[in-house]
């Protein structure tokens, strides 16, 4: 279902709770949405196999980009066919502090034949510039956009 309502006034609050035991999954919960089990990733000697704080952060970056792109394209009345995005988050230890230092977004955008490619690139760039998640993080965001044209069916 497409949400077309108005934004609520600021500040917004988002409440998540968790429950855990000394071993096993951590269960993340928030009212009105399914619970989400998480676990330490293999990179930190965990078993993996579930979402981790690290994969959730990268997922938040990609989800915010996609939803922001969708909103800007809709407000700009720019039709598009599909959007596929991959995000690679890089975790490093500069100055002996573990942190995400970069997020590489690889975007594949499919457009109908009549849409101007430069306009589509500007909208894709604007989505990266205004994504509230990446604007809230210290890591640098890099954007690589590939544009394809929708296949024209000849009858």
Gross morphology is globular
Give a count of the beta strands, DSSP E runs of length 2 or more. Answer: 6
Strand order within the widest sheet? Answer: 1-2-3
Distance between the termini: 32 Å
Mean pLDDT across all amino acids? 93
> Regarding CATH, which class of one domain?
Alpha Beta
Structural class: alpha+beta
CATH superfamily of one domain: K homology (KH) domain
CATH architecture of one domain: 2-Layer Sandwich
The parts where pLDDT drops under 50 for at least 5 residues are: none
Tally of individual helices = 3
Helix percentage:
25-40%
Q: What is the CATH T-level topology of one domain?
A: GMP Synthetase, Chain A, domain 3
Helix and strand element order: EEEHEEHHE
Cα-atom Rg, whole angstroms?
A: 19 Å
> What profile does the largest beta sheet have?
3 strands, antiparallel
Give the percentage of residues in beta strands.
25-35%
In short:
The chain has 155 residues and is α+β, with helices and mostly antiparallel strands. It is built from 3 helices and 6 strands; from the N terminus they run E-E-E-H-E-E-H-H-E.
